Amino acid sequence: MPTIQLYSAILCPFAHRVRLTLKEKGVPFESIEIDPQNKPANFLEISPYGKVPVLKHGDNRIWESAIVNEYLEETFPNPPLLPTEPMQRAQARIWINFADTRLFATTGKLLHGRDSHPTALLTELIEHLRFMEHEGLCKNSTSAPYWMGTELSLVDLTFYPWFEQLAVLEHFRGFGLPSGLDRLQEWQAAVAQRESVRSIANSPEFYLERYGRLVQAKF
């Protein structure tokens, strides 16, 4: 089997979700850390978009984290991380898309924008989280531990990195989880106990220190 290399960055939640998928699949890989502020001169030869993550599998390269994870699911089908039933599979893909186009998109604007009073974005983020609580967890999995039910899926691994870095939003943007997200917090606690998650987890202090460096460099 060709060696797998993952071009990653420790603060990138999209690279984080791919690392989690590789860990859950038990697929050995070499992680190559890329500094987004000081990329190698030949990085565009590796990543045509100039971003991480990029998965190199033999002579082939795949980028965009959701696509990388589906590639891993198809290439290494055990354990399965997507439902087999077509409607459930479609629902999983809808939630992965929601994470990318709503939750992470809004978070990126909050963290990297220059608005010192981003009230509208904070409100938007709260709305996304409440939608996840009521339209996602409360309807999809009732009291089951994971997003799609009793089995872990790519949906869980897609959302979880956001929660591991929540302290960054709290510290730099004064954001806190609103009340009434009990199911979401139960889900977070369940995923946090996975061996894959714990094996590569970082503390809030870890993220705050490194984001603090980025803020200083930016301003």
UniProtKB/TrEMBL annotation:
Keywords: Oxidoreductase, Transferase. Residues 85-214 form the GST C-terminal domain. PROSITE patterns: GLUTAREDOXIN_2, GST_CTER, GST_NTER. It is an enzyme of class 2 (transferase). Its EC number is 2.5.1.18. It comes from the Bacteria. Residues 2-80 form the GST N-terminal domain. It catalyses: RX + glutathione = an S-substituted glutathione + a halide anion + H(+). This is glutathione transferase. It comes from Chamaesiphon minutus (strain ATCC 27169 / PCC 6605).
